[in-house]
TrEMBL record, chain A:
Residues that, per the record, bind heme c 2: C224, C227, H228
Protein name: Cytochrome-c peroxidase
Record's comment on post-translational modification: Binds 2 heme groups per subunit.
Places the protein is found: Periplasm
Cofactor, free-text remark: Binds 2 heme groups.
Gene Ontology cellular component terms for the protein in this record: periplasmic space
Top-level taxon of origin: Bacteria
TM segment ranges: none
Length: 350, 287
């Protein structure tokens, strides 16, 4: 009996080892698979389909080159980096409350930070996109962003000897194609992990929070973390937090085609919120003080306002003293990840 | 037995066993062809230029129209026979190909034929396939082949996913006005576009519609596949059944670009596809 069990185990282990080698055939080996996606210990499992697009140094470098290259826009004036800047944790600058694209046309939404995208289930303020690979199609083809067709971008890339070579070394393809273009961009953005803020160090027992920050954390957990939940600081749901009752931008309602979802937007992560002003999908607030004042006293009622902000028919928001608001803001600043915003790997070095 | 001996033995067994699945089974295989014949009632489908006022078709309600584009995605093709015969077309997707996904386009004659290879010999009496691209085709990320948006795949980027079926044309009663989109594209007057998409199953929101449909069509007879016998099933897709089925009124329904509006059309897909006949041998289909 005992031997039998041991043998079974041996067989199982042997099986794994041998099937790894003996049938490999080298077919799925990608050149230079060295750069690795490493999940921070305290983070959830990533949602990104790395099995279809394993990170490689070459793929990442190509994605990086594309990210900073205005070749992706119609008039070669706008790159991803125009709206997603490293010093802002890859959100837009406060100079562009809602993003500015080709011909200085204004978008209707505020460009969010794109840190920790590998852990998100859906993308954009309304969850329009369900896979990270598809996000750039919107940026490239939206007439308020880069105003270019994916087909034409691929044509432009193939006209460049340098790009053809890079696609070949990264993916082994003779020509640039849209799926590999999207894979390269995803490799670059999926690697943008922000998990080394003061708060993370505190979680790992490496740093202490100040008295104010600790009070802020406790208040945050009490008042905010029902939505800004977990280490990603979002439960990834769609809610109306009372910033408006005029749903010119229907938000989640656009996607579900349901009135009950109009005015709801994705709960954003608050990681790096200290440096990603302005705030909300429509950039309504330019400081965290204004945001906290909004939750405390500024909430607008509407049929889809989150019920947690109401007491019966009365809008109560989140009652807080000024002092409590200040403590929460101090806590939010502990989510700024200086390692991330100075990480050389994401810096434009051309 | 010494551990080393056990290991050596195991090594032997495992190497022998682990590649076994790659060896072809000593069975007989043949091919099976599906021919998708798009029609408008009894008439052949001929495409017109967008905006053309030559209305060569009419719905049962008297709505005059023509078609400028018609097509759909088919995937997960399965053949079954009376004695448990089963063939499932391989579905395998990556950034370089989308095996098992077919975009049937009226404008591309070669796309009307789907050749199924390596079908186990036997008799078959029905075919099953999916119309549209289901969740497992969307959530793998960027894919090549007929799902590559830069190579003609019908991708919705405002609500990520693929359009499963597109019906476009011009109708006498369409209320569509001329639009110049300013980037070299325009929408002609009186045109209509029905794009049936939407793949999400969300149980707590009935407005969230999944318009992907799976159809099983009986041949009404059996056909045999062998090394020598390559049968052919002639599937007719009838646009008129779709338009009549929703009682189309082009004055109000001329621009369908969201899952909810596409649902009535998706609900007609069950009626729009029929196996018209099967040929036992497929030495050139007479068209």
């Amino acid at each position: 009996m005992v031997i039998n069990r041991v043998m079974k185990k041996c067989l199982a282990i042997g099986w794994v080892l041998f099937s790894l080698w003996s049938c490999g055939g080298g077919a799925d080996e990608k050149p230079g698979e060295v750069l690795a996606f490493v999940k921070p210990e305290h983070f959830p499992e990533p949602t990104y389909t790395f099995q279809n697009n394993p990170i490689t140094a070459e793929g990442f470098e190509l994605g990086k080159k594309l990210f900073f290259d205005p070749i992706l826009s119609r008039d070669k004036s706008v790159s991803c980096n125009n709206c997603h800047q490293q010093s802002r944790a890859f959100a837009d600058t406060p100079l562009h409350p809602t993003s500015v694209g080709v011909d200085n046309r204004f978008g209707i939404r505020n460009a969010p930070s794109i840190a920790n995208m590998a852990f998100m289930k859906e993308f954009f303020w309304d969850g329009a996109v369900t896979h990270l690979d598809f996000v750039p199609i919107n940026a490239i083809e939206s007439d308020v962003e880069m105003d270019e067709s994916l087909e034409n971008v691929v044509k432009k890339l193939n006209a460049s000897e340098a790009y053809r070579t890079k696609f070949k070394t990264a993916f082994g393809t003779e020509e640039a194609t849209a799926p590999y273009l999207l894979h390269a961009l995803s490799q670059f953005t999926a690697m943008m992990i922000s998990a080394d803020s003061k708060y993370d160090k505190y979680l790992q027992g490496q740093e202490e929070l100040t008295a104010n920050e600790s009070r802020g954390l406790a208040l945050f957990e009490q008042k905010c973390s029902s939505c800004h939940a977990g280490v990603l600081f979002t439960d990834q749901s769609y809610r109306n937090n009372g910033i408006s009752s005029d749903f010119g931008d229907k938000g989640r309602g656009l996607i579900t085609e349901d009135e009950a979802d109009e005015g709801k937007f994705k709960v954003p992560s608050l990681r790096n919120a200290g440096i990603t002003a302005p705030y909300m999908h429509n950039a309504k607030f330019s400081t965290l003080e204004e945001v906290l004042e909004h939750y405390g006293n500024g909430m607008v009622d509407s049929p889809t306002l989150d019920p947690s902000f109401k007491n019966g028919e009365v809008v109560v928001g989140i009652p807080m003293t000024k002092e409590e608001q200040g403590d929460i803001i101090e806590f939010i600043h502990t989510l700024t990840d200086y390692t991330f915003i100075s990480d050389e790997r994401f810096r434009n070095n051309e | 037995m010494k551990i080393s001996k056990i290991l050596a033995l195991l090594a032997l067994i495992v190497t022998i066993m682990s590649c076994e699945n790659d060896e072809p089974q000593p069975e007989e295989f043949g091919t099976f062809q599906l021919y998708f014949d798009n029609k408008v009632g009894a008439s052949e489908l001929t495409l017109s230029e967008p905006g053309s006022t030559n209305y060569n078709y009419e719905t049962t309600n008297g709505e005059k129209f023509n078609l400028s584009r018609f097509g759909y995605y088919v995937s997960k093709i399965k053949l079954e026979g009376p004695n448990g015969e089963l063939y499932e077309d391989e579905v395998s997707v990556s950034a370089s190909e989308s095996k098992g996904y077919y975009q049937i386009l009226e404008s591309v004659a070669s796309s009307h034929n789907v050749m199924l290879e390596n079908v186990p010999a036997g008799s078959y009496s029905k075919v099953t396939f999916t119309i549209g691209v289901a969740e497992d085709g969307v959530q793998e990320g960027a894919l090549g082949g007929v799902l590559d948006p830069a190579k003609g795949a019908w991708f919705w980027n405002w609500n990520a996913g693929y359009i499963g079926m597109a019906i476009e044309g011009t109708a006498e009663n369409s209320a569509q006005q001329y639009v110049d989109w300013g980037n070299g594209t325009e929408t002609k007057e009186k045109t209509f576009a029905v794009h049936v998409g939407g793949w999400k199953d969300v149980t707590d929101n009935e407005n969230f519609v999944n318009n992907v449909r799976t159809r099983t069509l009986d041949f009404g007879t059996t056909v045999s596949v062998s090394e020598e016998l390559s049968p052919n099933a002639h599937v007719v897709t009838d646009v008129l059944k779709l338009l009549d089925g929703v009682n189309i009124d082009f004055s109000s329904t001329y621009s369908v670009h969201a899952p909810k509006a596409g649902k009535p059309f998706a609900d007609q897909l069950a009626n729009a596809f029929v196996v018209h006949h099967v040929h036992q041998s497929s030495n050139g289909h007479g068209h």
